């Protein structure tokens, strides 16, 4: 214990692929150099930080691909996350992976992530009658006129809406209407309500339209509705038609474009099904399946010794997947003439890098180590030094979350579509140089002889 008190990171250097980069199996994401004892002590911390972040970031990217670029995605998983730390990490890395916002207000405060959401069903069901409203007035948006009895105005609008939609006004829930009015008075510029607490088409949507119409008369613009149950695609189409009818009847063009958000245990599979159906969904809220990564609950990144005192180390395992590649390595990404990455090449640290427009012999990772000769148009080194001899280098800085998010999206976009297919992707090629392959063969042979 006395010795451990003297341990520090003054001799530790860490190289890494930039955060937000697309990476592939068997590639070294990070390289940690320093005294053996110290770098061994860092194993658990680094794996803890990298594994879940990479897992949820990848999961978020898959959701983004499944949803398509035309729908906004909100991360709503804090209530399902494994603890507060897991919830904050999920919000942060979901945003990096391509989500547009989070319902986690603390994540918004700490990381600058846009915050979005709607009211809960409990808010709507907590009011049973308009008589319970303590405040029922609202000033027009221009602030130049006096307060208006907003409840009375909304009730008048409800009669008109029900006539247009041919919905019996007696079928609408008065408590729901009162809750909508209460929220609109508090947040007249952010009126987005959940409409399935009672009946979506007979109560929730007519009540919403009445309040939205009343807000419009006072100079405000409603945002939209959220669905949390039922056939989301079909209901979204029906609601859009109602918005279009109201838009035409009340001569409010903006009404036809009101946002329709959906939630309700959204998974990658349900997103793909939604995309295949006719729908009018603008925003999707994802929680459980995003932050708990139900399709793959853990990521198996490992931390392995590859070299000690310039001597390569190797783990020989009966399980081929667990065998390691010896030696300190560098990874280069090779692009073709169209700017698309087609190969990641691992070299030994002391090897010269591959050159643009020059042949390089490669050994593809796999049971047979197939050989090939490629000619890259562009070569990029993936590793950068982020921590050198216990210090962050003066010329290095950690980018903002928005910069990292943009880098992640560019990195994904650069890949060919065949590699991003969610069901049957074409494997991306990772290979090694002839010199690294020779080292691997010799170390493996020596290990077997011993």
Automatic annotation (TrEMBL):
The catalytic activity of this protein is classed by the Enzyme Commission as 6.3.4.21
Q: Is Endoplasmic reticulum one of the keywords?
A: no
User: Which keywords has UniProt assigned to this entry?
Assistant: Glycosyltransferase, Ligase, Magnesium, Manganese, Metal-binding, Phosphoprotein, Pyridine nucleotide biosynthesis, Transferase
Question: Known InterPro entries for this protein?
Answer: Aldolase_TIM, NAPRTase_C, Nic_PRibTrfase-Fam, Nic_PRibTrfase_pncB, Nicotinate_pribotase-like_C
- Family membership, please give it: Belongs to the NAPRTase family.
> Which cofactor(s) does the record list?
Mg(2+); Mn(2+)
**What job does this protein perform?**
Catalyzes the first step in the biosynthesis of NAD from nicotinic acid, the ATP-dependent synthesis of beta-nicotinate D-ribonucleotide from nicotinate and 5-phospho-D-ribose 1-phosphate. Helps prevent cellular oxidative stress via its role in NAD biosynthesis.
Specify the pathway.
Cofactor biosynthesis; NAD(+) biosynthesis; nicotinate D-ribonucleotide from nicotinate: step 1/1
Q: How is it modified after translation?
A: Transiently phosphorylated on a His residue during the reaction cycle. Phosphorylation strongly increases the affinity for substrates and increases the rate of nicotinate D-ribonucleotide production. Dephosphorylation regenerates the low-affinity form of the enzyme, leading to product release.
Fetch the PANTHER family from UniProt: NICOTINATE PHOSPHORIBOSYLTRANSFERASE
Q: Where is the Nicotinate phosphoribosyltransferase C-terminal domain?
A: 329-439
What species does this protein belong to? Pelobates cultripes (Western spadefoot toad)
State any GO BP term from the record. NAD+ biosynthetic process via the salvage pathway
Q: What is this protein called?
A: Nicotinate phosphoribosyltransferase
Annotated GO molecular function terms are: glycosyltransferase activity; metal ion binding; nicotinate phosphoribosyltransferase activity
GO CC terms of this entry: cytosol
One matching Pfam family, short form?
NAPRTase_C
């Amino acid at each position: 214990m006395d010795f451990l008190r003297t341990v520090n990171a003054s001799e530790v250097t860490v190289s890494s692929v930039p955060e937000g980069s697309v990476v592939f199996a068997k590639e070294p994401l990070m390289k940690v150099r320093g005294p053996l004892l110290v770098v061994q002590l860092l194993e658990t911390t680094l794996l803890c930080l990298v594994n879940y972040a990479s897992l949820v970031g990848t999961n978020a990217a898959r959701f983004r691909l499944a949803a398509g670029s035309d729908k906004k995605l909100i991360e709503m998983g804090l209530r399902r996350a494994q603890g507060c730390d897991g919830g904050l990490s999920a919000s942060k890395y979901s945003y990096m992976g391509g989500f547009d916002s989070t319902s986690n207000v603390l994540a918004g405060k700490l990381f600058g992530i846009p915050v979005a959401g709607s009211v809960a069903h409990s808010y709507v069901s907590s009011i049973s009658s308009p008589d319970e409203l303590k405040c029922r007035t609202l000033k027009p948006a221009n602030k130049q006129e006096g307060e208006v009895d907003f409840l009375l105005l909304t009730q008048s609008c409800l009669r008109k809406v029900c006539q247009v939609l041919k919905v019996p006004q007696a079928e609408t829930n008065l408590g729901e209407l009162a809750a909508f009015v209460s929220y609109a008075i508090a947040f007249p510029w952010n009126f987005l309500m959940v409409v399935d607490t009672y009946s979506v088409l007979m109560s929730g949507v007519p009540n919403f339209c009445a309040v939205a119409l009343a807000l419009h008369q006072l100079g405000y613009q409603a945002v939209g509705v959220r669905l949390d149950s039922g056939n989301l695609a079909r209901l979204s189409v029906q609601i859009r038609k109602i918005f279009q009818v109201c838009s035409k009847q009340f001569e409010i063009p903006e009404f036809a474009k009101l946002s329709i958000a959906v939630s309700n245990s959204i998974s990658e599979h349900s997103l793909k099904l939604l995309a295949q159906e006719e729908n009018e969904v603008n925003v999707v809220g994802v929680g459980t399946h995003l932050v708990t990564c139900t399709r793959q609950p853990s990521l198996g990144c490992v931390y392995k010794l590859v070299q000690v005192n310039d001597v390569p180390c190797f783990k020989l395992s009966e399980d081929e997947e667990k065998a390691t590649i010896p030696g300190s390595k560098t990874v280069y990404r090779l692009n073709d003439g169209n700017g698309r990455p087609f190969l990641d090449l691992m070299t030994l640290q002391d090897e010269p890098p591959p050159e643009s427009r020059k042949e390089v012999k490669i050994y593809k990772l796999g049971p047979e180590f197939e050989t090939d000769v490629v000619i890259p148009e562009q070569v990029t080194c993936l590793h950068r030094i982020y921590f050198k001899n216990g210090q962050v280098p003066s010329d290095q800085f950690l980018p903002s979350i928005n910069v990292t998010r943009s880098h992640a999206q560019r990195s994904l976009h650069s890949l060919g579509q065949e590699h991003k297919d969610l069901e049957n992707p074409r494997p991306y090629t990772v290979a090694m140089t002839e010199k690294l392959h020779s080292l691997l063969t010799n170390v493996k042979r020596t290990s077997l002889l011993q």
